[in-house]
Amino acid sequence: MSSASLFPAHRGQMEYRCLGCEARYGIEELLYTCPACGSVLLLADKAFDQLKKTPAKAWRELFDARAATRVTALKGIFRYYELTAPVLEPEDIVWLGEGLTPIIESSPALVRALGGQKTAFKNDGQNPSASFKDRGMACAFSYLKALIRTQGFTEILAVCASTGDTSAAAALYAAYVGGPIRSVVILPKGKVTPQQLAQPLGSGAVVLEVPGVFDDCMKVVEYLADNYRVALLNSKNAWRILGQESYAFEVAQHYAWDLAGKAVFVPIGNAGNVTAIMGGFLKLLELGIITALPRIFGVQSAHADPVYRYYAAEPDKRKYEAVKVTPSVAQAAMIGNPVSFPRVKYFAEQYARLGGAGSFQVVQVTEQAIIEGMLLANRHGHIACTQGGECLAGLMRARELSLIDTNETAVLDATAHMLKFIGFQDMYFSNTFPPEYGVTPRPELANKPEAVIGESEKDTLSPEDFTRAAGEAIVRRLGLAARG
User: Distance (Å, rounded) from C-alpha 45 to C-alpha 95?
Assistant: First the structure.
């Protein structure tokens, strides 16, 4: 196919749809909640049914052909333009290399360690800012560019609350788009890793700290969005959700559009990603691009588990309540009142209706299991963050509960790069976790550097003798055999 034939002809008719009162609104301005009832919004294409006129086989062939495109506007998440935000013009689309992150099958050794369970990690830490948040930001900032062009905005203050990853992504994309966009991030003081804090600072964002946890920051940002002209960039922003649906599209394409026997594990956090992933798979099913839904397992730490508690109750006794969080190594998921819970409930009901019993479930895991899940994954060649460790812990818990069997392939969401959360690995190895984490390191899992030769001894040796002494010390440590 030529580049011209790959470029989308379809233009949609997007609108906001309220999950509460079902009101509908145009997209001429950025809305976060329903002006009538305050409920969360989804974005939908009123012209979506037109896409059904194209055979499913043709959609699969088109998306596969776009994998080789040189057209910048069709790279990354916009490979799936018609399913994402088909109101954007090419000049508005932002692409920084996000999307198309690899799915890495686990090594035979890890499969054996998991009792024969086939697993694979989707490494979303290989996005530009090293987390999955870039998927949503690419879509959200593309929409902001469109607003600037069509509405003549001369200043947009882009604001987000964050435990780290959202702020890094928002600041990066704001810095790239530039122009009238200024980036401000609001962080919980002392609750963000040094690596994550460095990212928005490096991108030039204004970084403001608030005492408390993410939920406190989110309330401040919601206050600003309700009363002042700001662009809120948390997952309350429905454009973010659209961009994150690309995760589902990529998983389906990786498995040649055959998702039978697949189970996707996702940390819940603020519930935007699990919402988007369910929504993405449902779109593919509606168009016949896939013929079976993969199962979805949401995972939450016992230290921040409101969604687990909701689904653990009998259906007629379910009542959603926010929880007070306690410190978690899955820091990005340490959220006691996910703003996207209404979306989770909405999509989970559709998912269960179309996928059957057990197609959507939530499991709870311990902090010990999360950090040791990260260590287990990375000792077998992955680059999983603590949230990736949370997913592996979720898989192991699902196996304990007989919720999954070995004929299924578990796709685990590693939401960020492990280097963002390396401090938790150091705390485990050095046994310095504060008591509130509830983690007791196992000495046999500790891995520390070992001195080969002392500084004082080196000072007494000639360069040649030092090389020989250090080399022989390594020989003794490793038990090396001389060449025959």
Answer: 22
